[in-house]
Every structure is written in structure tokens, then in C-alpha cells.
Amino acid sequence: MSDLPGIVITGASGRMGQMLIRTVSDSDKARLAGAVERSGHEWVGQDLGTAMGGAPNGVIVTDDPLEAFSGAQAVIDFTAPAATVEFARLAAQARLTHVIGTTGMSDEHIAALKPCARHAVIVRAGNMSLGVNLLTQLTRKVAAALDADWDIEVIEAHHNKKVDAPSGTALMLGEAAAEGRGIDLEQNRESGRDGITGARQRGAIGFSAIRGGDIVGEHDVLFAGLGERIVLRHVATDRAIFARGALKAALWGQDKAPGEYDMIDVLGL
């Protein structure tokens, strides 16, 4: 077991953190090497298994990420943008593979990852599932085949606790559509419609967000032309798909050169 890659989970108490912990713990290809929570959190200093309501597992939750990283080969991080940037710096120091599923990252946050990628493998994706990454590839191909007379709208739905919109996956799909068309997403993005907005701009890529209940994640890419529509769709019913993808990325990164990668690289799509 000690020969297996050790993986640290940040944001251990969160919804995704706990799913990641269960996924790594159940894997025969990796071992759970540590769990990190923010300073002052009630889980800090507790046995992780006990904190999650089960049997002790010998992993003590810490608020010192560098300490946790020192005994590991990878870190999986679905936290918040500022925390992710700091984890990236520490992961680079420890030469860990850093798998990032954090959403809501600004251009400044993303730029701050580049120096870290000179020393460590960083795999960052708005979505870790195979299905969504296939959808991304399809979106790029369809957008390339259709001209600006076809309106593109990315429609996403998530649970009522999600704090950012559009989702990271929606932005990933929008970026794929923009790449297919050979345009810049930020210069052609349309979202947050309310009131008298005027007619839709020709060639714009629109975003619509729905929040409610316990929706895990639903994404539609709508191509609307005159008299016809094309809809590409992915529905997630279990967030374990994201945890399995993140674990796959952490294992994939073990023999790779430092640099920035995404799930398209991991999946070989």
C-alpha cells in the first residue's frame, strides 16, 4: 500500500471533498495521504474517518497544507480560487501533481498558476467527467461547422448551494464554441439578461444559469438557427463521476513533465 501514490484532499469537509475522500479511499490504485481544512474548522485535529461519521482511518485533518503535502504525490483541490492559488504554490514546492476542479477562477487567478506549472504538473478543468469532455469536443466541432446565423446558448443547472455562475463547465463549453468559431469568448459573451436588453447580438455566445434543489449538474449547448435547432446535452446524476475523473487525473500526472494540462490531455481525446 505504501507504494501507491499518496493523495491529499483539500476542503475535506465539503460536498466534493467528502466524495473525493471516499473515492480515493476505495481505490486500489492510490492511498489517502492527508486531508486539509481551513484554520478554525471543527474538523481540524480530528481523525478524518470519525469526522465523517464513520470508523477512524488514521488520517488526521490538518490546517497546514505543506505538512500534508510533504508525504504525498498529488493533491486534489475543489475549493475556492484564492485558496487554490496558494495550494498551487505549495504543491509546486513539494513537486506534487495538482488537480484543480475549483470554479469561479478569474484571469488573475489562472495567471498565478503559470509560475507553479514550471515546477509541477497542474491539471485544471471546469469538469472532470468523460461525458462532459466529449461534449466539449462535440461543441467545438459543431460550432466550427455553423456560421454566425446560428445562435449559441449554453444553459446550465446546478443545486441551490452553488455560489458561482456560469458554472466552470458552462464556461468551458462556451470557450470550446468560441474556439470552433475562431472568436474570442470574452468579446462575444452575453449573459445576465434582465429587463429590456435589446436584440441578441449576432454571433454572441449566451449563457443561462438555473439554480435549484439538489441538481448535480446539467448542461445544454443550444445551436438555434432559422427553422431548426441542435441541442447537445450532458446530465450528471452522481457527483462521483467528477471524483473518479479527478483521481484519474492525479494518477495520470505521476509520470508527466511539469506543465499545465486539462482533462482532454488526461483522457487522450
Automatic annotation (TrEMBL):
<feature type="domain" description="Dihydrodipicolinate reductase N-terminal">
    <location>
        <begin position="7"/>
        <end position="128"/>
    </location>
</feature>
<comment type="similarity">
    <text>Belongs to the DapB family.</text>
</comment>
<dbReference type="Pfam" id="PF05173">
    <property type="entry name" value="DapB_C"/>
</dbReference>
<dbReference type="InterPro" id="IPR022663">
    <property type="entry name" value="DapB_C"/>
</dbReference>
<keyword id="KW-0457">Lysine biosynthesis</keyword>
<feature type="binding site">
    <location>
        <begin position="168"/>
        <end position="169"/>
    </location>
    <ligand>
        <name>(S)-2,3,4,5-tetrahydrodipicolinate</name>
    </ligand>
</feature>
<protein>
    <recommendedName>
        <fullName>4-hydroxy-tetrahydrodipicolinate reductase</fullName>
        <ecNumber>1.17.1.8</ecNumber>
    </recommendedName>
</protein>
<feature type="binding site">
    <location>
        <begin position="101"/>
        <end position="103"/>
    </location>
    <ligand>
        <name>NAD(+)</name>
    </ligand>
</feature>
<dbReference type="InterPro" id="IPR036291">
    <property type="entry name" value="NAD(P)-bd_dom_sf"/>
</dbReference>
<dbReference type="GO" id="GO:0019877">
    <property type="term" value="P:diaminopimelate biosynthetic process"/>
</dbReference>
<dbReference type="GO" id="GO:0051287">
    <property type="term" value="F:NAD binding"/>
</dbReference>
<feature type="active site" description="Proton donor">
    <location>
        <position position="162"/>
    </location>
</feature>
<dbReference type="InterPro" id="IPR000846">
    <property type="entry name" value="DapB_N"/>
</dbReference>
<comment type="function">
    <text>Catalyzes the conversion of 4-hydroxy-tetrahydrodipicolinate (HTPA) to tetrahydrodipicolinate.</text>
</comment>
<comment type="subunit">
    <text>Homotetramer.</text>
</comment>
<dbReference type="GO" id="GO:0050661">
    <property type="term" value="F:NADP binding"/>
</dbReference>
<feature type="binding site">
    <location>
        <position position="37"/>
    </location>
    <ligand>
        <name>NAD(+)</name>
    </ligand>
</feature>
<keyword id="KW-0520">NAD</keyword>
<dbReference type="GO" id="GO:0008839">
    <property type="term" value="F:4-hydroxy-tetrahydrodipicolinate reductase"/>
</dbReference>
<dbReference type="GO" id="GO:0005829">
    <property type="term" value="C:cytosol"/>
</dbReference>
<dbReference type="GO" id="GO:0016726">
    <property type="term" value="F:oxidoreductase activity, acting on CH or CH2 groups, NAD or NADP as acceptor"/>
</dbReference>
<dbReference type="GO" id="GO:0009089">
    <property type="term" value="P:lysine biosynthetic process via diaminopimelate"/>
</dbReference>
<feature type="domain" description="Dihydrodipicolinate reductase C-terminal">
    <location>
        <begin position="131"/>
        <end position="267"/>
    </location>
</feature>
<feature type="binding site">
    <location>
        <position position="159"/>
    </location>
    <ligand>
        <name>(S)-2,3,4,5-tetrahydrodipicolinate</name>
    </ligand>
</feature>
<feature type="binding site">
    <location>
        <begin position="11"/>
        <end position="16"/>
    </location>
    <ligand>
        <name>NAD(+)</name>
    </ligand>
</feature>
<feature type="binding site">
    <location>
        <begin position="125"/>
        <end position="128"/>
    </location>
    <ligand>
        <name>NAD(+)</name>
    </ligand>
</feature>
<dbReference type="InterPro" id="IPR023940">
    <property type="entry name" value="DHDPR_bac"/>
</dbReference>
<dbReference type="Pfam" id="PF01113">
    <property type="entry name" value="DapB_N"/>
</dbReference>
<dbReference type="InterPro" id="IPR022664">
    <property type="entry name" value="DapB_N_CS"/>
</dbReference>
<feature type="active site" description="Proton donor/acceptor">
    <location>
        <position position="158"/>
    </location>
</feature>
<keyword id="KW-0028">Amino-acid biosynthesis</keyword>
<keyword id="KW-0560">Oxidoreductase</keyword>
<keyword id="KW-0220">Diaminopimelate biosynthesis</keyword>
<feature type="binding site">
    <location>
        <position position="38"/>
    </location>
    <ligand>
        <name>NADP(+)</name>
    </ligand>
</feature>
<keyword id="KW-0963">Cytoplasm</keyword>
<keyword id="KW-0521">NADP</keyword>
<comment type="pathway">
    <text>Amino-acid biosynthesis; L-lysine biosynthesis via DAP pathway; (S)-tetrahydrodipicolinate from L-aspartate: step 4/4.</text>
</comment>
